[in-house]
Structures are given as C-alpha cells and as structure tokens.
Amino acid sequence: MSWKPSPMLRYTLLRLALFLGSFAVIWGLVYLRVLPAGLGKSNLLWVMLLALVITAPLSYIVLRGARDQAAGYIAQRVENSRRAYAANRSQEDEADDAARAAQG
Q1: Using CA atoms, how far apart are residues 79 and 30, in angstroms rounded to an integer?
Q2: Does any domain span residue 95?
Q3: How many whole angstroms separate alpha carbon 9 and alpha carbon 56?
Q4: Residue 75 resides in a domain
C-alpha cells in the first residue's frame, strides 16, 4: 500500500517549492548584480518580498490543477462533515422525542 498525500498537502508543498525556486533565482540575480541589492542589511528581506510578489501570480497560473483538486477535496470534506452532523442531530432529536414520549 502506497501513501498518497492529500491534495491540500500536495498544493501547499508545490507552493512552497515554487517560492523556494523563485527565491533561489532572485537570489542568484541579485548576487550577479542583475537586480539591485536591498539597502544596508535588508538584502534577504528584499529577495523574500520579491519572491513572494512573483510567486503569487505564478502559482495562480501554474498550480491551477492542484488548486482545483485541493478545493474539491475541501468541499468534499465539508459535505461529509455536514452529513455526519445532520445524521447526529437527527439521532439526538429522535432520542429526545422518545424520552418525551416515555415521560408523558
């Protein structure tokens, strides 16, 4: 039996990988002085912010399939929880009705 991660975990890991890849590319461009370095000691913060800004629209386009799978997975889990809650609630209502009938 092989372990298969949930679609949400897969999407999260893909987003993280995309961010780390963007961070590495931007760091390289700053190191080669293609992009300007930050002011003083803010170089790391500059590279991180630029990687976040680039990763956001890139992940929207590149990870569309993984995002749709994760959204479907979450919707299914919510629906299962709603059904379980409704079943639990109806059982409690039946038990309350039976208790009232026994008392009265």
Answers
A1: 47
A2: yes
A3: 18
A4: yes
Answer whether residue 1 is part of any domain: no
Let me know if residue 37 belongs to a domain: yes
List b or e across 26-39, with b for residues whose CB sees 16 or more CB atoms inside 10 angstroms: bbeebeeeebeebe
Domain that holds residue 51: 7-103
In angstroms, how far apart are the furthest CA atoms of the chain?
Answer: 85
**SS3 assignment, position 40:** coil
Say how many residues make up the chain: 104
pLDDT, residue 103, reads 74
- Position 1 scores a pLDDT of 60
Q: Which two tokens stand for residue 36?
A: 């300007």
